[in-house]
Amino acid sequence: MLPKDPFILYSVVNARLRDTYPSLEALCDDHGVTPEEVCQALSAIGFTYDPDLNQFR
Asked: Residue 56 in 3-state DSSP?
């Protein structure tokens, strides 16, 4: 389960993308959420996903 707080979500997602998952889609598949849900939550605090870097910035 991923955190609901967007700032904690940002930290957890980027750490897992860096250390474990090759893509946002792979992370989301393992956690039962859609990439759109994660992107929407993080865009609300000003972050967007960069697939080339495999991280939110």
From this structure: strand
